[in-house]
C-alpha cells in the first residue's frame, strides 16, 4: 500500500498545476527525510482533464507551432548573416560557434527539459524556456563583440531546447492517441517552414535593415507564444484570477529564512544529484562536446593524426560511455530513495532496454544526420560548384522543404485513418534512402531538372520518417501503468534529444568529411591557386575567384560534396535497417462498427422514451 501511494505521489510530479508551499526553494526539512518535496495536491490532474478540443485545442496547438517556429528560425536565420556579423563585430574565426553554440545546448538539454516538465509541470516549464530563449535573443541582439554574441547564442540554445522538446511533449499529451500523429505532424511542420522562411528573413534584415533584427524579431513572437499558451493550456479549468492568486500565494509562502540553513543546500544538492542526475548529465555533455571538437579539429587541414585531436576523440568517447554506465548501473546503487520515482537517471535503463523504444530513436538520429548532409551541402554545392549566390542557393532548398511539410501532414492523416506506423516508417525511410542514392549522382555537369528534382525524395522521406519514429516510440508505453505520463514525457524528450544530437553530429561530421576530402584532392594534384592554403582559405578563395562550373576546381569541390552525400546515404541505410526491426504496434482508431452500433442503440432508446 505504501509503495502504491509513493507511485501515485511520484506520478503527481508530472501533472500541471501551481507550485505551492513545497516548491524547490521552499524546503520542509524533517528529521526523517530532508528532501525537497514537489508532490502537492495541486498536481493531481488526470489525463482526461488535460485532453483538449475545439477552439482551445486549435489555439494551444498554434502556440506550440509558434514555439517550434521561433526555435527553428534561430537555426536557419543565422546561416545568412555570418558574413555581415563578422564584418560588424570581427572574429571571423569564431563564427562557426554561432551555429554550434546554439545547436549543442539544443541537444544536450533536451533530457533536462523533460525532467523539468515532470517536476514543475508543463506550463511553468514552457514559460521558463520562453523566458530563457528571450534573454538569449536580447543578449545576441545587443552584442558588442563576437564573444558576447556567442554567449547569447548559448543562452538562447538552452531555452530553444525547451521550446522544441516541450512542444512535442505537450502536443502529444493534449489529445487522444488516435489524434496524436496529426498534432505531431502539424507541430513538426513548423520546423520545415522555418527552414524555408529563415534564409529569406535573414537576407532581408541584413540587406535592408541590420542583422540585429534577426534576434529582436524573437521578442514579439515569443511574447505572443507565451500569452496564447498561458490562456489556452489550463488543465484544471481555473480562471486567470485564480491562477494569478495561486502564484502570488506560492511566492508569499516562500520561507527565505531557510535559505541560510545548511540543510537547505544539502537537500538541493541531493535533488540535483538524483532528480536531475547532474553527474550523468555533466559527464555526457563533456563527452559529446569533446567528440564534436575532435571531429571539428580533425577536419581542419587533415589533422587527424594530431595529438590533441586523438585525445579529444578518445576522452570524449570514454566520458560518453562512462555517462551511460553511470546511469545504467551506478545510479541505482547510490540512490537514497529507490522507491521515489522522481529520483531516476536521465537515461532510464528500463526504457532504453526496450529495443522497440531504442530502434525508432536510432532511426531518428540516423535520419537527422543524413538530412544535415543534404541540407548543409546542397547549399555548398550550388555556391561552390555552380557559382550561385547565397540567396539563389537557398532557393534550391524549396523543393526539399515543401516535400518535407507535405509528407509530414500526409503521414499524420494516414496514421489517424489506418493506425499503421511500421509500414509507413519503412516506406518513408526507403524514400529517404532512394533519394540519398540519387543525390550521389549530382555533379557539376547536372542539368536544371536534376538540380531541382534530386531534393524532393530526401525531403519527402525525412518529413514522415521522423514523425513515424516518434509515434512508434510512444506506442511502447503501457497506458495502464501508473507511470505512463512520466514515461511519455521521458520517451518524447529522448526522441527530441536523439534528433538534436543527430543534427549536431551530422553538421560536424559532414564538415569533417568535406574538408578532409577537399584537402587531400587539392594537395594530390597541387591545384594552382589553392595548393598551400588552409581548408578555410580554400572556400574563401573559391568564392572570390570562381572560374567555371566545368573547371578542375569545380570538379574537386563537386567530388568532395558527393563524399558527404555518400556518408548521408550510409546513415539512411542504417535507419532503414532499424525501421525494419521496429515494433508493429498500431495507433488506436475509432471502431466504425461500434460507433454505428452505439448510435443505433441510442435511437432505439429515444424511440422507447417517446412511446
TrEMBL record:
Residues passing through the membrane, by range: 57-77, 97-114, 126-144, 150-170, 182-204, 210-233, 272-295, 307-331, 352-377, 397-415, 424-442, 454-472, 501-519, 564-584
Bilayer topology annotation: Multi-pass membrane protein
InterPro entries hit by this protein: MFS, MFS_dom, MFS_trans_sf
Tree of life domain: Eukaryota
One example GO MF annotation: transmembrane transporter activity
One Pfam short name: MFS_1
Protein's UniProt name: KLLA0D19941p
Domain (Major facilitator superfamily (MFS) profile) ranges: 60-587
Compartments, record wording: Membrane
Any Gene Ontology CC annotation: plasma membrane
Protein family according to the UniProt entry: Belongs to the major facilitator superfamily.
The entry's keywords: Membrane, Transmembrane, Transmembrane helix
PANTHER family given in the database record: AZOLE RESISTANCE PROTEIN 1-RELATED (PTHR23501:SF198), MAJOR FACILITATOR SUPERFAMILY (PTHR23501)
Amino acid at each position: 500500500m505504501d509503495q502504491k501511494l509513493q507511485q501515485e505521489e511520484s506520478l503527481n510530479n508530472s501533472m500541471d498545476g501551481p507550485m505551492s508551499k513545497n516548491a524547490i526553494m521552499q524546503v520542509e526539512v524533517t528529521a526523517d527525510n530532508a528532501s525537497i518535496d514537489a508532490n502537492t495536491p495541486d498536481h493531481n490532474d488526470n489525463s482526461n482533464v488535460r485532453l483538449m478540443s475545439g477552439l482551445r485545442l486549435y489555439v494551444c496547438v498554434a502556440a506550440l507551432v509558434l514555439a517550434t517556429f521561433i526555435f527553428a528560425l534561430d537555426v536557419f536565420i543565422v546561416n545568412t548573416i555570418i558574413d555581415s556579423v563578422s564584418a560588424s563585430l570581427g572574429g571571423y574565426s569564431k563564427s562557426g560557434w554561432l551555429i554550434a553554440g546554439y545547436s549543442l545546448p539544443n541537444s544536450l538539454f533536451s533530457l533536462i527539459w523533460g525532467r523539468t516538465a515532470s517536476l514543475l509541470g508543463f506550463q511553468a516549464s514552457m514559460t521558463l524556456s520562453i523566458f530563457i530563449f528571450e534573454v538569449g535573443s536580447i543578449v545576441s541582439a545587443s552584442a558588442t563583440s563576437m564573444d558576447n554574441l556567442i554567449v547569447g547564442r548559448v543562452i538562447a540554445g538552452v531555452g530553444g531546447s525547451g521550446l522544441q522538446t516541450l512542444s512535442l511533449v505537450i502536443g502529444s499529451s493534449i489529445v487522444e492517441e488516435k489524434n496524436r500523429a496529426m498534432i505531431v505532424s502539424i507541430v513538426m511542420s513548423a520546423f520545415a517552414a522555418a527552414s524555408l522562411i529563415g534564409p529569406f528573413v535573414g537576407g532581408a534584415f541584413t540587406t535592408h535593415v541590420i542583422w540585429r533584427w534577426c534576434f529582436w524579431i524573437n521578442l514579439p513572437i515569443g511574447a505572443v507564444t507565451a500569452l496564447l499558451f498561458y490562456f489556452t493550456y489550463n488543465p484544471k479549468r481555473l480562471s486567470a484570477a485564480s491562477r494569478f492568486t495561486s502564484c502570488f500565494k506560492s511566492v508569499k509562502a516562500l520561507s527565505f529564512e531557510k535559505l541560510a540553513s545548511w540543510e537547505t543546500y544539502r537537500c538541493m544538492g541531493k535533488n540535483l544529484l538524483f532528480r536531475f542526475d547532474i553527474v550523468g548529465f555533466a559527464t555526457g555533455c563533456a563527452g559529446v562536446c569533446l567528440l564534436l571538437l575532435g571531429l571539428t579539429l580533425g577536419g581542419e587541414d587533415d589533422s587527424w593524426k594530431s595529438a590533441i585531436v586523438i585525445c579529444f576523440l578518445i576522452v570524449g568517447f570514454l566520458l560518453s560511455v562512462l555517462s551511460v554506465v553511470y546511469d545504467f548501473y551506478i545510479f541505482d546503487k547510490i540512490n537514497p530513495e529507490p522507491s521515489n520515482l522522481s529520483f531516476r537517471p536521465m537515461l532510464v535503463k528500463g526504457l532504453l532496454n526496450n529495443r522497440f523504444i531504442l530502434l525508432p530513436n536510432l532511426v531518428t538520429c540516423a535520419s537527422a544526420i543524413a538530412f544535415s548532409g543534404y541540407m548543409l551541402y546542397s547549399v555548398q554545392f550550388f555556391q561552390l560548384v555552380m557559382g550561385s549566390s547565397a540567396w539563389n542557393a537557398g532557393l534550391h532548398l524549396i523543393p526539399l522543404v515543401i516535400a518535407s511539410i507535405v509528407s509530414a501532414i500526409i503521414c499524420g492523416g494516414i496514421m489517424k485513418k489506418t493506425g499503421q506506423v511500421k509500414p509507413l516508417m519503412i516506406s518513408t525511410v526507403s524514400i529517404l534512402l532512394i533519394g540519398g542514392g540519387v543525390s550521389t549522382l549530382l555533379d557539376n555537369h547536372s542539368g536544371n531538372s536534376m538540380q531541382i528534382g534530386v531534393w524532393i525524395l530526401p525531403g519527402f522521406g525525412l518529413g514522415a520518417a521522423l514523425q513515424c519514429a516518434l509515434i512508434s516510440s510512444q506506442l511502447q508505453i503501457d497506458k495502464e501503468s501508473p507511470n505512463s505520463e512520466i514515461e511519455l514525457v521521458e520517451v518524447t524528450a529522448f526522441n527530441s534529444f536523439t534528433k538534436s544530437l543527430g543534427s549536431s553530429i551530422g553538421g560536424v561530421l559532414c564538415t569533417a568529411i568535406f574538408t578532409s576530402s577537399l584537402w587531400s584532392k587539392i594537395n594530390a594534384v597541387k591545384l594552382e591557386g589553392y595548393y598551400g592554403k588552409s581548408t578555410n582559405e580554400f572556400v574563401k578563395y573559391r568564392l572570390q575567384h570562381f572560374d567555371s562550373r566545368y573547371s578542375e576546381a569545380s570538379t574537386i569541390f563537386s567530388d568532395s560534396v558527393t563524399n558527404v552525400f555518400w556518408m548521408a546515404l550510409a546513415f539512411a541505410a542504417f535507419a532503414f535497417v532499424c525501421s525494419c526491426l521496429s515494433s508493429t504496434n498500431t495507433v488506436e482508431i475509432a471502431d466504425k462498427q461500434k460507433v454505428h452500433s452505439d448510435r443505433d442503440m441510442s435511437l432505439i432508446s429515444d424511440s422507447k422514451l417517446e412511446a
